[in-house]
Amino acid sequence: RRVCCVSLDCPAQLKERLIHWVSRGCMDVDGLGDELIDKMIEAGLLRDVADFYTLDADSIAALDTDRTYAKDDKKKGVSAGDSIKVGATIAQKVVDELARSKEQPLSRVLFALGIRHVGKSVAEVIAQRFLTVDALAAASEEDIAGCEGIGPKIAASVRQFLAVPEISDRKSTRL
After folding, report:
1. DSSP per residue over 86-109, as a string?
2. HSE-CB of 133 using CA atoms within 13 angstroms
3. pLDDT band at residue 8, thresholds of 50, 70 and 90?
4. Distances (CA, A) of 76 to 58, 88, 92, 149, 158
5. What share of the chain is helix, strand, coil (3-state, %, to 5)?
6. Which of 152, 158, 113, 154 shows the shortest CA–CA distance to 138?
7. Which of 13, 18, 134, 164 shows its CA 20 to 30 Å from the CA of 47?
């Protein structure tokens, strides 16, 4: 039997949840990879996926990449050994990509949430039946299990996920 940590406070779960959220098959946010997400977590900018949508370009641009300039560059106004920051260009691209990701369909959002047993195809079935996060949150386990190809195990997993206070408190305002 496999044991999984389901705590939203688990640092490893947080990082994986954030990486999954921005991945190509989910919200498809280009420019946000493991390294930049690590920097955002370290800086206290990300505590959950909703925080992606509160980020501003200045906060991202100021993040240290843990790299340094090898030599002086008077044009850039830097000296050898100065820290290299993410920078305004990359930061604005990330903010623009995050804004674009808000246009993804509900099925992608459901898949991106990382609900246990909910892959792409299950997320599509649920999205077609419930149409909104609020409608899904109001659905009973039996309603969810009534969807084509969804049984009690998946329905219980969805209900359990939506019942977590951290999720249910922000279902309509931040998802």
Report:
1. --HHHHHHHHHHHHHHTTS-HHHH
2. 20
3. low
4. 18, 13, 19, 58, 51
5. 55, 5, 40
6. 158
7. 134
